[in-house]
From TrEMBL:
This is D-amino-acid oxidase. It holds the Pfam family DAO. It comes from Planosporangium mesophilum. The keyword Protein biosynthesis does not apply. D-dopa binds at H209, Y217, R274, G300.
């Protein structure tokens, strides 16, 4: 039997593609996802993931991030199995810096006392924010998407023209691979690696504020007895093989902040390629008489921006 053609074809099943596809399906559109990689092999699956806006000089970023935070907070309350938890924790800077404005508006915000700062850090602040266990959350989004009648095929798209021949509206959520698909030479890879360990009893998160190629962060996944340790920021590197030297350095830095992590058993190492661009590309273009809506280039903030960007895609489709 011939399957009915989708009204919307979403390319990609990372956090951008799944969130967008779910929102569109909830709004009664017939949606199909084509993804080259299985959910758990995407960059999204390698994210920490702590909610936190980045590239905030772009005026779209804070509204997208806030919309996403509110949705993640709702999900955390509504469905404990979705992989999202709102966690209290400490962000600290090695070089003196004021807290960003967005942080001061978060629940539980306060500045750190000097005796709370780990060695080597000079200022800090506390707040409550969503932490997402990405393997669980991606499966949750996929299940909700199929509950709404959405379909997913694991197959690669060779070109946007091929996609437009399949559906009148295409949403491009190809992450770093949009570089070749669009093509968009301004999109760059920024490799990142995390180490997942057994939880020795970590209650609060820790995140380094400084922009560095060796950021230190400790993100408890309370529902799974695991802790995500990070991280690395490696511009231009594209291999996805775990690097033992980087894992060792991550574990050492995290144990300096929380000594209980020193002998924690390593469960897995995850690697992803952040799709780095000077600004997120979210706009509608025409390809071969069809509509292509780009939603890629979220760099180190794709989880943080996911629901806000998905709502803008929906608005662009409604305006066609
Ligand atoms: C170590 C690390 C830590 C991070 N921590 C955080 C964090 O704490 N908070 C945060 O907000 N963000 C974080 N990020 C960033 C976040 O992971 C990314 O911004 C986000 O995953 C991008 O999602 P995406 O869905 O756009 O792309 P991806 O997850 O890369 O998904 C792209 C999808 O497109 C598909 N695709 C590509 N090309 C084709 C094709 N030709 N045909 C069909 N399908 C195709 C792929 O198969 C995949 O399904 C982190 C990233 C890393 C690496």
């Amino acid at each position: 039997m011939m399957r009915p053609k989708p009204e919307v074809l979403v390319i990609g099943a990372g956090v951008s593609g799944l969130t967008t596809a779910l929102l569109l399906a909830k709004n009664n559109l017939r949606v199909r996802i084509w993804t080259r990689d299985a959910l758990l092999r995407t960059t999204s699956c390698a994210a920490g993931a702590l909610w936190g806006p980045y590239l905030v000089s772009d005026q779209r970023v804070l509204p997208w991030a806030t919309q996403t935070r509110l949705e993640l907070e709702r999900l955390a309350v509504r469905d404990r199995s979705c992989g999202v938890r709102v966690v209290y924790g400490h962000e600290a800077a090695r070089t003196a810096a004021p807290p960003p404005g967005w942080a001061t508006e978060l629940p539980g915000f306060r500045t750190s006392r000097p005796d709370e700062l780990p060695a080597g850090f000079t200022t800090g602040w506390w707040y409550r924010a969503p932490i997402v266990d990405m393997p669980t959350y991606l499966r949750y989004l996929y299940d909700r998407f199929t509950d709404c009648g959405g379909k997913l095929d694991q197959r690669a798209v060779g070109s946007l023209a091929e996609a437009v021949a399949e559906a009148p509206v295409v949403v491009n959520c190809a992450g770093y691979d949009a570089r070749n698909l669009v093509p968009d030479a301004s999109l760059r890879p920024t490799r990142g690696q995390i180490v997942v360990v057994d939880d020795p009893g970590i209650e609060e998160f820790f995140a380094e504020h400084d922009e560095s190629e060796e950021p230190t962060y400790i993100l408890p996944q309370h529902d799974h007895g695991r802790v995500v340790l990070g991280g690395s920021v490696e511009p231009g590197r594209t291999d996805r093989v775990p690097d033992e030297r980087i894992s060792t350095a991550i574990r050492r830095r995290c144990a300096e902040v929380m000594p209980a992590l020193r002998d924690a058993r390593v469960v897995e190492v995850r690697v992803g390629l952040r799709p780095t661009r000077s600004r997120v590309r979210l706009e509608r273009t025409a390809v071969d008489g069809g509509h292509v809506i780009h939603n890629y280039g979220h760099g180190g903030g794709g989880v943080t921006l996911s629901w806000g960007c998905a709502h803008d895609v929906l608005s662009l489709i409604n305006a066609i």
